[in-house]
Amino acid sequence: MSLTAHPDLTLLAILVAGLAVGTVLGRWTVRRPRAAAPPDPDCHDQLETLARAREASEQANGELKQALDQMEQAAGTDRLTGAWNRRRFEDGAIQLMALSSRRGDALSLILLDLDRFKRVNDTFGHGVGDAVLKSVAGTVRDQLRASDAFVRWGGEEFIVLCPATTLAGATILAEKIRRAVEAQSIPQVGMVTISLGVAQHQNAEALDAWVTRADGALYRAKVRGRNRTEASLEMVETHGDESPSILALIWDPALECGNPEIDHQHQQLYHLSNSLLASITSGRYPEDAKLQMQLLIAHVAQHFHDEEAILARTGYPALAVHAKEHNRLIAQAKLLQKDMGGVSTDLPALLNFLALDLVKGHLMAWDRRFFKHLAES
Fold it and tell me: Deepest in the core among 33, 153, 217, 240, taking most CB within 10 A?
């Protein structure tokens, strides 16, 4: 086979030879590859500088976010006690009030104040006063549930916000808090006490009005000797969309004896009795009724104690017999409370106790016996 007979093969052979010796064929030039250029040291330094700047920026952003988080937390938290501050409480309370209104849940608050706290500051100094506030705040917080919010309202005043809690439940919690604080001994100071006012939020009630009612109950606790709990039983005006219980005790002004404290406690007794009756007749038995009964017994016991003290100061001659009747009624109430919710619950007996023994029997019969004595003393 000759080269002249195959022109394509002749061209291929020429191309191969050209590649070997670097021959230029027409416009095609075949060159040897160049060696890689050494790295630019200035470019490497620039990359390292950018990486360091990026790391510094990320660190600064992280520190800024942490600082902003701390500022946001501080904006809603009291520095001394770690409790919510007033602004955070107002925001949270308004949200809970709206939620409670939609769901029909109970919502209560406890307003508490350290008794004679100015004396602590004046005697031991503000440093010890701050230590007392921190200690009391810690004791109160230990008694609360996870759902409760603890607030420093100002100075030595605090608020406990209690979602899904009736007046009875919040009053029982308040008494638990009071006893826990009273049981503590604080270095340099010893025992301190608190007074508490409790109020359940009512339909369409503004936040300020709600707190004001709790403050009124706290004021009564102060006036009546401090280291005690008072509940706000005042009813705000409603729009008539709440149906009353089919059973209700109606207060008669003829039952007033003329002593403001006794008369007020008697009216509270009527209110608590009606709350218990409502919980029984409106399908909230026995859970809410048990709390209402516990609150009623606590109020009756406190009322009997205060009434006996007033009668003793005025020299009432039948005080011993009157006190004996008080003890009988308390014992009867506790027996009925023990059976509540059980298979042997006697609801007619409970109703008879409220309507006949406690109200008609005691207030209308026994208490009327000292009316004349109080008027003459």
Answer: 217
- Return all residues near 325 (Cβ < 8 A) that are at least 6 apart: 362, 366
Q: What is the pLDDT of residue 63?
A: 62
Could you list the active site residues? 156
In 3D space, the residue among 354, 356, 300, 359 whose CA is nearest the CA of residue 330 turns out to be 300
How far apart, in whole angstroms, are the C-alpha atoms of residue 212 and residue 228? Answer: 18
pLDDT along the chain (377 residues), means of 10: 45 44 42 56 70 71 54 71 93 91 89 96 95 97 94 96 89 92 94 96 92 95 92 58 56 88 88 81 70 86 92 95 94 84 61 79 90 90
CA angle (55 as vertex; 54, 61 as ends), nearest 5: 90
Give the CA distances from residue 108 to residues 74, 97, 243, 355, 372, in Å, rounded to whole numbers and listed in that order: 26, 10, 21, 28, 40
User: Where do we find the tokens 């005697």?
Assistant: 123
The CA radius of gyration of the chain, in Å to the nearest whole number, is 40
The 10 Å Cβ neighbour count of residue 52 is: 10
Per-residue pLDDT, 11? 43
Per DSSP, the residues of 239-308 read -S-SPPPSS-PPP-GGG--S-HHHHHHHHHHHHHHHHHHHHHHTT-TTHHHHHHHHHHHHHHHHHHHHHH
Domains, the chain, with CATH or none:
86-231 (3.30.70.270), 253-376 (1.20.120.50)
Token pair belonging to 69: 């988080």
The per-residue pLDDT for 143 is: 95
pLDDT at 65: 53
